[in-house]
Design a protein that fits this description.
- Chains A, B, C, D: This is Heme-binding protein.
- Chains A, B, C, D: It holds the Pfam family HbpS-like.
- Four copies of one chain form a homotetramer.
- Chain A contains four helices and four strands, in the order H-E-E-H-H-E-E-H.
- By secondary structure, chain A is of the alpha+beta class.
- Chain A has one domain: 2-Layer Sandwich (Beta-Lactamase), CATH 3.30.450.
- A four-stranded antiparallel beta sheet of chain A has the order 2-1-4-3.
- The relative contact order of chain A is 0.25.
- Chains in contact: A-B, A-D, B-C, C-D.
């Protein structure tokens, strides 16, 4: 019930390919079921600030076993989870983090992508997640 | 005027029972009157990100001797305590943290619960607090 | 151009007296011109979470040589200093922090108070500041 | 493709001159292409709290190769990058940070300025950036 490095590297390859296809430069992070980093790639010329954001997106997605953007809908002023970002050494709650599941639907990790619009980030994360 | 481990463990037992009753999986944290952790349980399959949130809810509740949700009403934009979450290494100000009192009404600690909707979190925290 | 411990202790005495007069229990912190703590008192029964807030209010006030509440008006969503609270290891930008000045108007430190409503916090901080 | 200390010092000189011209007292920070500090100056009497803000503005600008104020437009409640400030040990997303480019348009670092209104901060940062 945990991702292997081989799987994580497949995700990185697929995410890089999608990123190139849509003409972006991404930071791509894969964490395991314990929310610890397994593999990471920063494409040449990708934003330096997206390094930490991609890792935080992957962690946030595994922390709650959902897409990061779902949490962001609840963390707004007046929302049920307002300012949840202060937990866990800083969450990132906009799109770009996606859980990874095995054939039985168990969460085995998560992938986080940052470096373009949040729509593109999510597209690339999905492409990575679909590689396994 | 401080909670004992025996009391904290009773709270955990009661909170787990209520959590099962309402079909949730919770992180449950009990802190003493110094806001330091006494007992903790993460139910199998509960969100990993709720670990830190449950502890922060318990601490936040003891820090101000009130339910965490009360603080969240004041920390919104335009509110009297806007962005108070930046203090004390990160507060969690939505429901799920409840103070613990002795027979004389003195605060002896607090319980924090995270893992479901904030309504369910609060329900389980209350069940725990009522066990002593 | 820096506060002495003797002055800081006078501020604590005056702030405690005002706090008792208005029936509150306060945390009171005095920092010097370098924003470092000089004296501190937590009145019996005062909120534990206000310890850090009182110190952060004193620091924030010295950091910008103004009352903390002024900054909070600018740090709201849409404001010029939105999310400035993320700087300096966490600012507190609601009322209760007041700069301390010498006879020539030079800032020699600041006092921060937390433990009641922000109006009461500010009242007690002012009483402290007026003691020197 | 990285700023030299000589260039950074020219930026500091130009920013100080502009700051004096518009009657302000600034903290001025220059980071390299790795977002690490190269040169810094705090003008006598400038806000102490602006020290950290100027450095965070420079880092934030290099992290995303854009003016800091652009990010702040997207990090508001409801915005695409809501609460991005929680990443990278704290971003500052209001104006005053500007990327530095070489003759070919490559980003070689960034300058961050803090100590007055955000308009003045940006004006001084621009003056610094134009010195190389």
């Amino acid at each position: 019930m945990n991702i292997t490095l081989e799987q994580a590297e497949k995700i990185i390859v697929a995410a890089k390919a999608k990123s190139i296809e849509i003409n972006t430069k991404m930071n791509i992070a894969v964490v395991d079921s314990g929310a610890n980093l397994v593999a990471f790639a920063r494409m040449d010329g990708a934003w330096l600030g997206s390094l930490d954001i991609s890792i935080k997106k992957a962690k946030t997605s595994r922390f709650f076993d959902m897409n990061t953007g779902v949490i962001g809908e609840l963390s707004q002023p007046g929302g049920a989870l307002y300012n949840i970002e202060h937990s866990n050494n800083g969450l990132i709650t906009f799109p770009g983090g996606v859980p990874l599941k095995d054939a039985n639907g168990n969460v085995i990790g998560a992938v986080g992508v940052s470096g373009s619009s949040v729509e593109n980030d999510h597209t690339v994360a999905e492409a990575g997640a679909n590689a396994i």
